[in-house]
Amino acid sequence: MNRISHLRKLRAYEKHTTYSKKGLKPNGGQFLNFDHVKFWVGNAKQAASFYCARMGFEPLGYNGLETGSRCKAAHAIKLNKIIFVFESAYEPDNEEMANHLSRHGDGVRDIAFNVKDIDTIFKIAKCRGAKIIRELWEEKDKYGVVRFATLQTYGDTLHTFIDRTKYNGIFLPGFRKIEGDVIAKLLPPINLNFIDHIVGNQPDQQMEPIAKWYEDLLQFHRFWSVDDSQLHTEFSALRSIVMTNWEETVKMPINEPAFGKKKSQIQEYVEYYGGAGVQHIALNTDDIITAISNLRLRGVEFLSVPDSYYKILRKRLQLSNINVIEDLDILQKLQILIDYDENGYLLQIFTKNMQDRPTFFIEVIQRCNHNGFGAGNFQALFEAIEIEQAKRGNL
């Protein structure tokens, strides 16, 4: 049997579907990239400080009582092209935020997109039945004008379209620049560059309707998918469809649980989050070894991978024609996973949950001519998560 046949045989268990046809090009409008991600949290100042200290973000801007915002405080932080915004309420009778926090805990409220021709994108979404949270509006200051529109997607998660072509401020109108923590600057830098993808978990049987929502309302197309016959362990399984815009610069995997002997990590998320929501955000790097080494020095905790994974991996790589440049011993020491196909490979690792509820976490990913989502690592990932679930009594 030749090398390619060996590769196909070894990879048979992780088959996935890649969609080569985008369908019709959208009728106007363009999604450029992820603009920012907004979190609703109990204490925005502390949450922002945590991500600065642990993940290497730097303060970008502040909007609160001192800048004229009477209802809520907002702390924006930035790491290269990644922007997170943390918001919390000032007043005890802010029912919307209070109810959201009571039901979901700290979590992602809004995934904002930087768009071109916001009028067309919003008009199409509205005409096709989108639930509108706020019609087109604009905000301005001395640095220019920003246009917005917000609609609801899965669960209580929102999408805000942002047109900032006529704005030159630090972030958005109302935000005042703030200086970083001197101590945080003494910690090792983190080279995470941009948001690679954002994963949304759904209750059972809701993946297809949500995928269709992105197709119909945002004119996205299917990029990649797997089902529970391909992604499962002895105890649990999932199905996943990756949705993306025409230019494929914004990728949104949609997951749902599948039947298994015990509770899957997707079902655990849905139960603790109180419905559909963002499970994790993947941050892209071009040097994952340095990134993870420094994140560990900063105290970030990652899921553990058994040594048996790397023993099997070495055997598989010997039968493939893939040349992994990184030192496998270092990757094993740092617990970084490797997935590959005939064209290239990716390296990825997942943090433990970023808060007490077993809901939201962060992925760090490095792509080397590989556009997949780590299908070959799902079994190792699931088993690592199931170990943590068992500790919580939720498996």
From TrEMBL:
Binds 1 Fe cation per subunit. It catalyses: 3-(4-hydroxyphenyl)pyruvate + O2 = homogentisate + CO2. This is 4-hydroxyphenylpyruvate dioxygenase. One of its GO terms (biological process) is L-tyrosine catabolic process. Pfam families: Glyoxalase (PF00903). The keyword Ubl conjugation does not apply. It is a peripheral membrane protein. Keywords: Cytoplasm, Dioxygenase, Endoplasmic reticulum, Golgi apparatus, Iron, Membrane, Metal-binding, Oxidoreductase, Phenylalanine catabolism, Repeat, Tyrosine catabolism. Pathway: Amino-acid degradation; L-phenylalanine degradation; acetoacetate and fumarate from L-phenylalanine: step 3/6. The gene is LOC105366228. SUPFAM superfamilies: Glyoxalase/Bleomycin resistance protein/Dihydroxybiphenyl dioxygenase. The keyword Chaperone does not apply. It comes from Ceratosolen solmsi marchali.
